[in-house]
């Protein structure tokens, strides 16, 4: 039985080979661990292009209506200790005065501290 290896995530070359626990591309020299999530896939950016990480502090850049409630998250609201998650709303956080909710990264800006 022949094992088919995935193409290179950098250059899409089909000529990858395995060396110990890593897969290697002979064309571009990229090495990666099979089954590991791609680094680019985990990259979440805010409204101006800053890379967001777990634990960052962000501010809301526009008023956001809270679905199923009459509450509104006002522009300039500072949210501390965000957590990045997969999905359409890629930030999980606790907003002061409202509670736990998901935000889209396009509506926040990273606070430089």
TrEMBL record:
InterPro entries: YjdM, YjdM_C, YjdM_N
Residue ranges of domain Protein YjdM C-terminal in the record: 44-111
Domain (Protein YjdM N-terminal) ranges: 4-33
SUPFAM superfamilies recorded: Prokaryotic SH3-related domain (SSF82057), Zinc beta-ribbon (SSF57783)
NCBIfam families for this protein: phnA
Assigned protein family: Belongs to the YjdM family.
This protein's name: Zinc ribbon domain-containing protein YjdM
